[in-house]
């Protein structure tokens, strides 16, 4: 098999890259270890930055998102039993976020790729990367038990945190930095109407809680728990009772409904420096993980892809490798800022039981400062809606500047 870009992983990063390359007349093949049903059914992110929404629209895959997604102009912070609204729209000169589930983005991208005749190979196994230090990288894999090989010009490692791409970069070349948090998120999907027009982030003595949404019928809520806790310890009654304890106020009580899904995820910040070796480029969770508190993971994957797209298009149009050579540095500069924001939101909002009374006092003062200072609220807002993505020497990062 022969293609221009071999892509490992059909998450948001891999699918979007393949679609954007197609729009530029560049071929790719995606290798995905799971089935189409599995990737379209995995519940994960839901908050899309303005830039992500703009890109999906510009790429012609935003129609359903615009119909079914929900625009939010602000978020609410709750601490000491009181709510405080951060008006992101006003503080950022009109920017907003859109709540549209990651698996819906995946469905839209898969459908578009298949409609356009794109090659997405599901259920592959034994994926391995070869010769990416040369100009003729290869990917070997098995499909239906049969060994296959793809020869390509570039490999995009979009295979998430546990995929083989990052591990293929020699250990002497990459540096990995990480922070493990003593917090886990117990997430539920529940069949109820939205409990609030905007997301509510709560810092409570018993732990963090987040009230979020997915659609007019399905809501997504989270509780801070011990990351080693077993979901079997959490009956539906216990989950609702804990949510009431943490989020109810004098004039608000959370609406209960049937819980249709529940799980516990642990939280980490992780970054791999470098994101490139030879003709292998890492994008998305393959290169970095953020705790979900800042809602940045999917959005970071999208901005990595934008930079990679610019680099690959430049290469095929002019033979230049200016952007590709700087891919890692360009991406990491923005990723570190998203890491800082996600770390800050996580430490500000979660209850750390090892904190001294003094540290707890500082945490509450920080929340009070964000809620009462326009400058502090603006800093939160501009990071939450998404920092600009800049490519040195490029006036615009829009798709329109990439002529076919
Ligand atoms: C509970 C939770 C809530 C979140 N909330 C948000 C949010 O609100 N906003 C936000 O922006 N982000 C959020 N995130 C993060 C977001 O989901 C991820 O950052 C995003 O999925 C990254 O996309 P990706 O394409 O890089 O990786 P992935 O989505 O992980 O996709 C990688 C793909 O590669 C495939 N793969 C792996 N190994 C192989 C292999 N050997 N061969 C072939 N294929 C392989 C996998 O099956 C997968 O389909 C959340 C995450 C979690 C867990």
SSE inventory with pairings:
Layout (H helix, E strand, L loop, with lengths): L4 E4 L3 H12 L4 E4 L4 H6 L5 E2 L1 H9 L4 H6 L1 E3 L2 E5 L2 E5 L1 H4 L5 E3 L2 H14 L3 E3 L2 E7 L7 E6 L2 E6 L2 E4 L6 H5 L6 E17 L8 E4 L5 E5 L4 E8 L10 H12 L11 E15 L2 E2 L2 E3 L5 E2 L7 H22 L3 H4 L1 H23 L7 H16 L1 H12 L19
Parallel strand pairs: 1-2, 1-12, 2-8, 5-14, 12-19
Antiparallel strand pairs: 3-7, 4-7, 5-6, 9-10, 10-11, 13-16, 13-17, 14-15, 15-16, 17-20, 18-19
Helix pairs in contact: 1-6, 1-9, 9-11, 12-13
The site of flavin-adenine dinucleotide has 36 residues, from helix 1, strand 9 and helix 9.
How does this structure look, described?
There is one protein chain. Helix 1 (12-23) runs parallel beside helix 6, helix 1 (12-23) packs parallel to helix 9 and helix 9 (297-318) runs antiparallel to helix 11 (327-349). This protein has helices at 12-23, 36-41, 50-58, 63-68, 88-91, 102-115, 164-168, 236-247, 297-318, 322-325, 327-349, 357-372, 374-385; strands spanning 5-8, 28-31, 47-48, 70-72, 75-79, 82-86, 97-99, 119-121, 124-130, 138-143, 146-151, 154-157, 175-191, 200-203, 209-213, 218-225, 259-273, 276-277, 280-282, 288-289. An 8-stranded mixed sheet has the order 6-5-14-15-16-13-17-20. A 6-stranded mixed sheet has the order 8-2-1-12-19-18. A 3-stranded antiparallel sheet has the order 3-7-4. The chain starts with a strand and ends in a 19-residue tail after the last helix. Strand 18 and strand 19 (280-282) form a beta hairpin. Helices cover 36% and strands 27% of the residues. The chain has 404 residues and is of the alpha+beta class. The longest helix has 23 residues, at 327-349. It has 13 helices and 20 strands. Residues 8-14, 31-34, 39, 44-47, 102, 124, 127, 158-160, 162-164, 187, 265, 284-285, 292, 295-299, 301 line the site of flavin-adenine dinucleotide.
């Amino acid at each position: 098999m022969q293609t221009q870009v071999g892509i490992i992983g059909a998450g948001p990063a891999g699918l979007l890259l393949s679609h954007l390359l197609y729009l530029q007349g560049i071929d790719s093949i995606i290798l995905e270890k799971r089935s189409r049903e599995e990737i379209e059914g995995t519940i994960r992110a839901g908050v899309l930055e303005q830039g992500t929404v703009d890109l999906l629209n510009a790429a012609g895959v935003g129609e359903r998102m615009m119909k079914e997604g929900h625009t939010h102009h602000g978020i609410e912070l709750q601490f000491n039993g009181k709510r405080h609204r951060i008006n992101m729209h006003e503080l950022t000169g009109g920017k907003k976020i859109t709540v549209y589930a990651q698996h819906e983005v995946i469905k839209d991208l898969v459908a578009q790729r298949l409609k356009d005749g794109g090659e997405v190979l599901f259920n592959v196994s034994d994926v391995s990367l070869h010769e990416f230090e040369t100009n003729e990288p290869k990917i070997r894999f098995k499909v239906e038990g049969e060994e296959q090989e793809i020869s390509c010009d570039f490999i995009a490692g979009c295979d998430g945190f546990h995929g083989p791409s990052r591990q293929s970069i020699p250990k002497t070349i990459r540096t990995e930095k990480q922070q493990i948090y003593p917090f886990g998120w117990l997430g539920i999907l529940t069949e109820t109407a939205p409990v609030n027009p905007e997301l509510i982030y709560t810092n409570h003595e018993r732990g963090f809680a987040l009230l979020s949404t997915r659609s007019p019928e399905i809501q997504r809520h989270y509780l801070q728990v011990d990351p080693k806790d077993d979901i079997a310890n959490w009956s539906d009654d216990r989950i609702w009772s804990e949510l009431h304890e943490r989020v109810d106020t004098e004039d608000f009580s959370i609406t209960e409904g049937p819980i249709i899904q529940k799980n516990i995820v642990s939280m980490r910040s992780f970054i791999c420096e470098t994101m490139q070796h030879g003709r292998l480029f890492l994008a998305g969770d393959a290169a970095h993980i953020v705790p979900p508190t800042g809602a940045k993971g999917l959005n970071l994957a999208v901005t990595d892809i934008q930079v990679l797209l610019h680099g690959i298009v430049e290469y095929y149009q002019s033979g230049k490798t200016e952007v590709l050579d700087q891919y890692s540095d360009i991406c990491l500069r923005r990723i570190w800022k998203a890491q800082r924001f996600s770390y800050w939101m996580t430490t500000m909002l979660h209850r750390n039981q090892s904190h001294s009374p003094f540290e707890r006092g500082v945490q509450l003062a920080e929340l009070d400062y964000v809620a009462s200072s326009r400058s502090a609220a603006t800093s939160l807002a501009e990071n939450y809606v998404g920092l600009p993505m800049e490519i040195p020497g490029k006036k615009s990062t829009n798709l329109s500047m990439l002529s076919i």
